[in-house]
Specification:
The chain has 460 residues and is of the alpha+beta class. It contains nine helices and 17 strands. Strands 1, 2, 6, 7, 8, 9 and 17 form a seven-stranded mixed sheet that branches. A six-stranded antiparallel sheet has the order 5-11-12-13-10-16. About 1% of the residues have low confidence.
Length: 460
Amino acid sequence: MDNTFDIIVVGSSFSGSFFLHGYLPKARKNARILVLERGTKDSRQWASEKNFINRTPEKPWAYVIGFGGGSKAWWACTPRMMPNDFKLKKTYGVGVDWPLNYEELEPYYTEAEKVMTVSGPDNSPYPRSQPYPQPPHRFSDPDRLLNAAYPNQHFPQATARTRVATANRPPCCGSGVCSACPIGAKFTIMNEMAHLYKDPRVTLLLDAQALAVETAAGQAKGVRYLKDGVEQIAKADLVVLGANAIFNPYLLQRSDLAHPLLGKRLSEQVSMGAKIYLDGVDNFQGSTSINANGYMLYDGPHRSQYAACMIEVQNVPFLRVEKGRWRQVSYMKFIFEDLPNEKNYVTVSATNPHLPETVYKGYSAYTQRGMDTLPDVLPKILAPLPIERLDISGPGHSEAHILGTTVMGNDPATAIVDKHLIHHQVRNLMVLGGSVFPTSAPANPTLTLSALTLWAVDHL
C-alpha cells in the first residue's frame, strides 16, 4: 500500500474521531488520512480481553484498547468544566491556569454535545449558549428533595446516555451496567461516528501499534508503527496524536522530543463514597444510572485552601436488607480535583521499550484537605434528606480519567503544546486528549477533551 498521506491520526477514540468530525468537512476531496488503531474492531470480547490496566504498586490506571477506545467502556457522564476551573491560579492562587478560557471553549462544548446528543437540564451551573439536545433524565425522590433545597446547585446529570431515542440509539434502560451498555443507549464512536471511517478519504488500519513520530529538521515526517510483527513507516504532512495520557507522552519520548515536563504531572481526580440510610424515603425512581450532580461543594473561596468536589448521585439499585425498607438507601460519590505533581510521571519501560511505565507518588495535600472536610460538611449538605445513618468510605483507586502528561500552555518552557494543541517544538504535530489538561477539575473530562479537539481543528 502507498504509505504517504496528508494526515496520520494515532487512535480512534474521542480525540481521533472528533478530529475527523471537525476536519473532514473542510478537507479537499482527494485528501488522504490514515488512522492507526492499536486495537481491533471487535465485539464484546473487549470487555474481558481488551480492557488494559497499567498498574503501579500504588495505583491502577484503567483504559481500553480497541476501535472507539474509551467510548466502549465509559459511563457517558458529560458535565462541562466550570469557568473558574480554567483560571484556578488567577482566581484562587493555586495550581495553574489554562491558556484558554471557558468562553472560548463554550461553542465547542455545544457542538460536542450535539454530536453526543447529550441529555441535560434547562438550567445548569455553567453558562450555556444553547439548550441541551435532549431533555434531562428523571430524578429519584431523594434528588427532588435536594433539588428543592438547592435549586441552583443540584441538577439532573448531563449525560450522553439517551433520554429519548435517536436514529441509532434507544432510550437508556437504567440497568446500571453502563461500561458495557446492553442496548447501545450511551454514545460510542461505533454507534454515532463510525460513518467517519467509511469516508473514502479515511484509511483505518487496525492492529497497528504506533511506535514513534518520525522527525527531521524540526518537522514531523510520519509515524513508525508495528503491523503483523513488521515495523513500517507511514509519511504525512501532519501528525495527530490522539492516544491517552499514558501513550501520548510515551510516543513523544520514543520520538526523542525531550522536554523537562514531558510525561510529568500524571494525574486524575480522587473520589470518596457515602452510603446513606434513609428514614421513610424510597429511592431508585430515576431513569438512568447516575441521576444527578451536586455542586454544593464545587466552586467558591474554599478552593484557595482545599479541593473542589462534585457530587454524583447513583441510581444503580442496591437494596437495604430490611423488610419494608428495601429502597430506603442511597449511594453518592464525591469527586475531588487534584493539583499538578511532577513526581507522578510516565516513562518508557526499561525492560520493554514497546510499553510505557508509570510512577505515581500520590495526590496532593490540597486534595487531601478537601477530603478531610467531608465528614464535617456532608451531614449539613444532606440535611434536606431524612437520614438514619451515613457511612463514608474511600478514597477510591481509580476514576479511569488519565490526565496531564503533555500539558498545554503559552510558554514553551512550561508546556508541551500551545493553546491550539500544536507541539511547541514541532509545528506540524498535534497532541490531543486528556494529556494536555493542565489541571484535573472535578468534572468528568471526556466532553472537555472532545470540545478541545474541535477547538484545535478550527484553529489548525
